[in-house]
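Structure first, sequence second, as always.
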């Protein structure tokens, strides 16, 4: 018994002289990449830098639920609409209107007036028709193996994207302006309603 206790004590003492072996890092820790936009969060797997303006921003995890191509298509579409909407909203309040009494209203009141005269229903009809036509390209991209990129309708009459470098630059500029326009349109409508004044809404 005494001999066993001596041997155990010596073994414990000897192990103190051996350098500790570092614990193996888990695969999760080795593959961890911080998001560029949110450094305190992990970079979403689907946001791999394929698309212009990708900075790993997905705090709610939408890219783990929906296909990133569909999300980018929606982002570009809403951004383009907001760029036009902001311009139209401000232009109307600066006095650029169509002839006729029904058009001589502020942008805030235009919706109700358009509904009253039936213009909004026509607008809804034509936009729905356009959406159905354009959805064919989205379906081809999503489920039919088309190489089409999100938001690409082959429209470049002034040849802005004549080289791959120019194309990448224009894509980054567009998505940056799209994101800004979505905030800008929300802001301009809110400010116009709160102040009840025309441009610049204060």
């Amino acid at each position: 018994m005494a001999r066993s206790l001596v041997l155990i004590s010596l073994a414990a003492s000897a192990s103190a002289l051996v350098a500790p072996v570092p614990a193996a890092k888990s695969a999760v820790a080795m593959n961890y990449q911080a998001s560029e936009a949110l450094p305190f969060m992990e970079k979403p797997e689907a946001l791999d830098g394929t698309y212009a303006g990708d900075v790993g921003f997905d705090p709610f995890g939408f890219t783990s639920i929906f296909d990133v191509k569909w999300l980018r298509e929606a982002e570009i579409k809403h951004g383009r609409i907001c760029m036009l909407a902001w311009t139209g909203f401000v232009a109307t309040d600066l006095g650029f209107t169509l002839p006729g009494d029904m058009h001589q209203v502020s942008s805030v009141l235009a919706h109700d007036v358009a509904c009253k005269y039936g213009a909004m229903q026509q607008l809804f009809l034509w936009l729905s028709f356009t959406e159905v036509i354009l959805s064919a390209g989205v379906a081809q991209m999503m489920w039919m193996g088309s190489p089409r990129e999100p938001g690409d309708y082959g429209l470049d009459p002034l040849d802005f994207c004549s080289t791959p470098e120019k194309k990448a630059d224009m894509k980054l500029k567009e998505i940056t302006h799209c994101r800004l326009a979505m905030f800008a349109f929300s802001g301009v409508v809110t400010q116009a309603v709160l102040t009840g004044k025309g441009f610049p809404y204060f």
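Margin note: DSSP finds six helices and no strands in the chain.
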